[in-house]
Amino acid sequence: MNEILELEYNEKKGYFCIMVDDKIEAKMTFVFAGEYKIIIDHTEVSPENNGKGFGKKMLVKAVEFAREKGISILPLCPFAKSVFDKTPEFRDVL
User: Fold this and answer.
1) Could you tell me which of 67, 2, 68, 64 has the C-alpha nearest to residue 28?
2) Which of 45, 31, 35 minimizes the C-alpha distance to 76?
3) What pTM value is reported for the model?
4) Is 91 helix (H, G, I), strand (E, B) or coil?
5) Is the separation of the CB atoms in 74 and 37 below 8 Å?
6) How far lies 34's CA from each of 46, 50, 73, 94, in Å?
7) What pLDDT does 2 receive?
8) Rounded distance, CA 84 to CA 94, Å?
9) Can you give 32-75 as a three-state secondary structure string?
10) pLDDT in tens, the chain (94 residues)
11) Distance CA 91, CA 72 (A)
């Protein structure tokens, strides 16, 4: 299984995704809210990949992205919010 985590974005919106054998198996979408904030609005993982940690891997990448760009994250997606609630070390980007 060849697993690749990718980021695609423009000045308005973007997404993190996990590709497995050239097929998107998980996706976390976000929109920019001004110059210094992104809003994570949706996370989806294909049913056959539930429980493999794909959602958390994408969120870790989102946190790294926010730190690199000096921006904050507003987690409106219930999954992202629950991970932020359970992971104090990510809260510096809130």
Assistant:
1) 64
2) 31
3) 0.95
4) helix
5) yes
6) 31, 33, 11, 15
7) 87
8) 9
9) ECCCCEEEEEEEEECHHHCCCCHHHHHHHHHHHHHHHHCCEEEE
10) 789 999 999 999 999 999 999 999 999 999 999 999 999 999 999 999 999 999 999 999 999 999 999 999 999 999 999 999 999 999 999 9
11) 9
Report pLDDT for 82.
Answer: 98
Angle at 27 between CA 78 and CA 45, to 5 degrees: 70
Q: What angle do CA 3, 48, 74 make, to 5 degrees?
A: 70
Backbone angles phi, psi at 35, to 5 degrees: -85, -25
CA 53: distance to chain centroid?
12
Between CA 26 and CA 40 the distance in angstroms is 14
Half-sphere exposure for 59 (CA within 13 Å, toward CB): 29
